[in-house]
Design goal:
Blueprint lengths: L2 E6 L2 E6 L6 H8 L19 E3 L2 E3 L13 E3 L1 H4 L6 H8 L9 H14 L5 H8 L9 H16 L10
Parallel strand pairs: 1-5
Antiparallel strand pairs: 1-2, 3-4, 3-5
Helix pairs in contact: 3-6, 4-5
GO molecular function: 2 iron, 2 sulfur cluster binding; metal ion binding; oxidoreductase activity
Protein name: Isoquinoline 1-oxidoreductase subunit alpha
Keywords: 2Fe-2S, Iron, Iron-sulfur, Metal-binding, Oxidoreductase
């Protein structure tokens, strides 16, 4: 089996697996990273949303063989040294109910705010439309993104983690 090396949450990792194994299984079952959740397995629910080279992506549909030399960040890496402003806003707005979708929602929100720190409702809706919340906390998700955007515009970097 080939070895696949990539950066995961700032650390170099190497796994020896068939190249077509989805990264989500590698993260959860091989590396013990449980933040990205299995929701649908076909890239439509957003529960596993993480970042690949700084952009939101779905590990459930990306084979580990495509990741050699690339950088993956999960929710664990985002808050590795303290809460990111998006995480702080999520708590302040009391977004989570069941919490299952929240890691993916937060990672999608961070990706949005990386390129747009003053998103309109339409911008938020468009960026978050592929992340499903079974509890329907969309109003609170939007409020948290607006709060995080304000924190970022005001220079708050949270208590750690890359933005």
């Amino acid at each position: 089996m080939p070895a696949h090396q990539f950066i995961l949450n700032g650390q170099s990792v190497s796994v020896e697996l068939p190249s077509d194994v989805p990264l989500l299984w590698v993260l959860r079952d091989v590396l013990g990273v449980k933040g990205p959740k299995y929701g649908c397995g076909v890239g439509v629910c957003g529960a596993c949303t993480s970042h690949l080279d700084g952009e939101a992506f779905r590990p459930c549909i990306h084979p580990v063989g495509e990741l050699t030399g690339r950088e993956v960040m999960t929710i664990e890496g985002l808050g590795a040294s303290g809460l990111h402003p998006v995480q702080e806003a999520w708590i302040a707005e009391d977004v989570a109910q069941c919490g299952f979708c929240q890691p993916g929602q937060i990672m999608a929100a961070v990706a949005l705010l990386r390129t747009n720190v003053q998103p309109s409702d339409a911008d938020i809706d468009a960026a978050m439309s592929d992340n499903v919340c079974r509890c329907g906390t969309y109003v609170r998700i939007r409020a948290a993104i607006k709060r995080a955007a304000l924190l970022l515009r005001n220079g708050a970097m949270g208590t750690g983690g890359p933005g």
